[in-house]
Amino acid sequence: MSKEEEPPPLILEDKVFNQYGRVEGLISFEDFLKVTERYPFVSTSYYLSLAEPSLDDPIMRQLCPSPEELIDNVGLFDDPLAEEERSPVPGLVHRYPDRVLLILTNACFMNCRHCTRKRLWQKGRYIHNLLEIDRMIDYIKEHPQVRDVIISGGDPLTLSNELLDEVLGKIRAIPHVEIIRIGTRAPVVAPWRLSYELLQVLKKYRPLWMNTQFNHIKEITLHSADAVQRVGECGIPVSNQSVLLKGVNDNVEAMTKLCHGLLKIGVRPYYLYHCDPVCGTSHFRTSISKGIEIIEKMRGHTSGLAVPTYVVDAVQGGGKIPLQPPNMIYNKEENKILLRNYRNQRFEYDESWHNL
Predict the structure, then answer these.
(1) What are the pLDDT digits (tens) for 31-60?
(2) Which residues are catalytic?
(3) For the domain with range 71-323, which CATH number is right: 3.40.50.700, 3.20.20.70, 3.40.630.190, 1.10.1040.10?
(4) The model's pTM
(5) Dihedral angle at the C-alpha atoms of 251, 256, 262, 267, nearest 10 degrees?
């Protein structure tokens, strides 16, 4: 990469006031320091450039620290998914029988204010060393039921190409590992990271899948579209895992526009996550009924491919639970099922038909 093509640096802490001034008037400098003392601010100049100087802007809402993050809400968690309880070795989470999650770093290109792992921000930016990573690899080797490895963080694409090459090579060498997935928000907040050099590393380890997180149509730009196109051309499918966020995408129009935009750039709308009950995120959370309403009003009015699966990640490590509109009522006595379509029309299905 030439000097002229070097990506812009991350924007850290109060430099956002001194150099960019994009959040002036949205939060006082005093409040900014109070919030970021607990939950640090990190962004890229690219993502910041997409924002309008208003807290009603869906981009600004995701990146701007808010005093609401410091409100102590009863019943919220630092680690709602109990990841640390299910971490047999540091950096590895084994919650489902056939797959594990590797958290190689807590560093991201951007600290999303709705992050489910905000607890890790307070530890400073770190990367697990090679000895710790080898312990994760050894654990996978010792558990032949593990066929699927998800590499996340933080954002694993903040790591060097060399380290990613080494880690992916060790994982791919394990005979029982069938699938490798990378969770990254780089296409959204740092599209330059999907460089030719990086993609030459990633394509060596297919089948490899990439999950990213677009939350609003404004995040789909020529730069982000070009990034995911480059990934797709390497034979790496890209899926999207949105988070349902109040003031960002919590209505049918916004979610439909986003999912249509994703399909146009070759990204599959995969999950719509209900915002986890993480400390410091209560101002983003909607009701579960709001999420069901959005899915119900999308279903039938657009193609099924454009409708993500709405899921709640159950607390205490209960796992992802898909929630769909109640379209089926089972009458056990009559052995019949009453079905309801997107127009609220009712249809009867007789279970005895399968015996004819």
Answers:
(1) 888 999 999 999 998 998 899 888 889 999
(2) 95-96, 99, 108, 112, 115, 117, 276, 313, 320
(3) 3.20.20.70
(4) 0.89
(5) 90
